[in-house]
Amino acid sequence: MDDWIDYYDSTHTIYVSKTHRDAHFRVIADDIAGFIASPDAVVLDYSCGEALFAPRVAAACGQLILAEPAPGVRGRLLARFATNPKIKVLSLAALSGLADASVDLAVMISVTQYMTPVELDDALALMRRVLKPGGRLVLGDILKPDIGAPTDVWALLRFGAAHGFFKDAVIGLARTALSDYWQLRQRIGLQRYGETEMIGKLASTGLIATRASVNVGHNPARMTFIARPQ
Fold first, then answer.
1. Which of 44, 113, 133, 203 has the fewest CB atoms within 10 Å of its CB?
2. Would you identify the CATH topology of the domain 2-229?
3. What's residue 184's pLDDT?
C-alpha cells in the first residue's frame, strides 16, 4: 500500500477537476451518514482521504475519527477540521490505541484495491477489535475480478454528466492514460475480490457479512459489504 499512499500524498490528477473531487467526497459523505444509526455513534473512517465533507458525517454522529495514512493529506485534515470538536484525525498507526469495542460504525471506502491481502487482513482484525458487539463495518467500492477499466470509465462519464463535469471527465481520462496513476496501476495492479471470497475473508476475522444491494459511491459495478462481529 506504500506506493499508493505516496501517490495520493503527491500532486496527483486522479480527480479530473475540482467539481469531480467535490462531488466524489460529497457523495461518499452522504452515503456514510446514511449508515449511522444513532446521533451518539462513534464512527471510524479508515484511510479517509481528503474527506472534504466530513462535517456532514460528523453532524450525524457523536464523534468522527478520520484515519489517514498519507502525512500530507493528514496535515490538511488536521488544519481543515481543527475547530470541529466532533472530528478527530489520526494516523493508521494510532488506531492501535483505540479501546476494544469502542466504535459503532467503521467504514473503509475504496481502500481494499490498494491493499495487499495481508494488509487487508490486518485492517479487518483491527475493525473486529474496535467494533462494539452491535457495531457494523461498511466495506465499500470493492472491485470485482471480472470488471475492468472500461466499466470504470463509463461510470465516471455518467457521474460527470450527472454532476456537471462531463467535458472535464473526457479530457481527464485522456490525461490519465499517460499519468503516473495509470503507470502505477499497470505496475502494481489493483486487488479484486469476488463476493464469496470477500464474505469468506471477513468471516475469517470474525465478521459476518452480507453484500449490500447498492454500492457506496458512484460506481454501481463495484460492491459494498456490511459486516457485524460474530
1. 133
2. Rossmann fold (3.40.50)
3. 76
One-letter amino acid of 122: D
Beta bridge partners of 109: 140
Q: Which among 198, 57, 206 is positioned nearest to 126, based on CA atoms?
A: 206
Cβ-contact 220, 214 below 8 angstroms: yes
148 versus 212: the higher-pLDDT residue is: 212
Handedness of CA 54, 211, 98, 192 (dihedral sign): negative
Cα 90 to Cα 35, 45, 62, 138, 144, distances in angstroms: 22, 10, 17, 19, 30
Q: Which helix (H) or strand (E) holds 21?
A: helix 18-33
Residues 6+ apart with CB under 8 A from 81: 54, 55, 66, 87, 89
With a pLDDT cut of 90, the percent of the chain lying above it is: 80
- Over residues 125-134, the pLDDT tens digits come to 999 999 999 9
Q: To 10 degrees, what angle do helices 149-163 and 166-176 make?
A: 150
Rounded (5°) CA angle 223-224-228: 145
CA–CA gap between residue 165 and residue 113 (Å, rounded):
25
